[in-house]
Amino acid sequence: MYKFRTMVQNAEELKLQYAHLNILQPPDFKIPNDPRITRVGRFLRTTSLDELPQILNIIKGDMSFVGPRPTSFAAVTYDVWHGERLEVTPGLTGLWQIRGRGEAEFDDRLRLDIEYIRNWSLWYDVQLLWRTFWAVARRKGAH
What is the pTM of this model? Predict the structure, then answer.
């Protein structure tokens, strides 16, 4: 998945140093005012411009406009019931980008992904794209 770099190069190694500040349950990692994010990176994330390169993934056919967001977690991270969300093409935006963007826990996001999959329709995708546009414009839940 293409993305602009928004963090310092050794961000992964710094996770241990900042683990005590993590506000989400593992496997997620999120800390308020994350010092690993660069100044330009903060702007890119706030405006969601860091996602723009994923248009190339869509053109290549690796992603769709709407679907479960891709993750970098290993397969062993997922329980059996999570498997349904791994069977569809990931998307640039999804249901959890609108409901709890950046704040939802892992299992809650997966429930939203499965809800999206089970209720999929072209009209639903159009609605989610529209709602995503407004969530980004209002910077609702910006990370």
Answer: 0.81
